[in-house]
Amino acid sequence: MNAASVKITEIFYSLQGESNTSGRPTVFVRLTGCPLRCQYCDSEYAFYGGERMSLDAVLAQVASYNPRYVCVTGGEPMAQRTCPELLSALCDAGYNVSLETSGAIALDNVDARVVKVMDLKTPGSGESHRNLWDNLDTLKSTDQIKFVICSRDDYDWARLKIDERGLADRVADVLMSPSYGQVDERALAEWIVADNLPVRYQLQLHKLLWDDSPGR
Ligand SMILES: C[S@@+](CC[C@H](N)C(=O)[O-])C[C@H]1O[C@@H](n2cnc3c(N)ncnc32)[C@H](O)[C@@H]1O
Ligand SMILES: Nc1nc2[nH]cc(C(=O)O)c2c(=O)[nH]1
Ligand code: SF4
Ligand SMILES: [Mg+2]
């Protein structure tokens, strides 16, 4: 019995559209609220509202899909005090659990079984001043770092950070993703190849399949 609660925008079953498990059927648990305002945010509907649910109720709804993968996202999930407890409870239930986070909130209390997908906010997001660089020290070799690229300037900035901080050696994958509709997708792919960058390019699979609909 777990009576702690979290505020939830939606729980749905879809294909993972990002990260290195892209394409795997995954349950998404989207927590409500975010202290950041990235200019490109595709999840603004999660900023407000939501429904308070007990961790037990969340676990029951997740279990109803019988998934292998569960992704906790938002909003900014780590802005809720009980998020670490939710993550541990999902791991205890036997799922492969990932956390999508801006990294603007300390990550040292996240269960080691959780795969962290930490977005280092680029200058083009308008929120790069929120990056907590100390969070890099909490990352394990199974975690992932993501850059959402809005322009050639963002790309050059990300390339510098990868090099300066040896990011490719710290985690399983450094992901680079075009900000949806804001940078030429093919151009970004070609810059990466031309520079022989140690990253993994990704397009948001769920947007290719279902446009930009919530609950996908
Ligand atoms: C909606 S956020 C939720 C988790 C957390 N707040 C974060 O920013 O990582 C999930 C991921 O979607 C990315 N994202 C949001 N809007 C996007 C867009 N328009 N194009 C590409 N990626 C986007 C974010 O940068 C983040 O990596
Ligand atoms: N299909 C699908 N995959 C996703 N991976 C990360 C998502 C997110 O919003 O954090 C997301 C999402 O919203 N939908
Ligand atoms: S941190 Fe994540 S949820 Fe918050 S505004 Fe940025 S992309 Fe959206
Ligand atoms: Mg999304």
Structural key phrases:
216 residues; alpha/beta; TIM Barrel; 9-stranded mixed β-sheet; 5 helices; binds S-adenosylmethionine; binds iron/sulfur cluster; binds magnesium ion; Aldolase_TIM; EC 4.3.99.3; metal-binding; S-adenosyl-L-methionine
Structural commentary:
There is one protein chain. This protein has helices spanning 55-63, 83-92, 152-164, 185-194, 205-210; strands at residues 5-15, 25-31, 51-54, 69-73, 96-101, 115-119, 144-149, 173-178, 200-201. The protein is an alpha/beta fold and 216 residues long. The protein has a nine-stranded mixed beta sheet with strand order 3-1-2-4-5-6-7-8-9. The chain is globular, with a radius of gyration of 17 Å. The model has no long low-confidence stretch (mean pLDDT 97). It binds S-adenosylmethionine (SAM), the ligand Nc1nc2[nH]cc(C(=O)O)c2c(=O)[nH]1, iron/sulfur cluster (SF4) and magnesium ion. The site of S-adenosylmethionine has 18 residues, from β5 and β7.
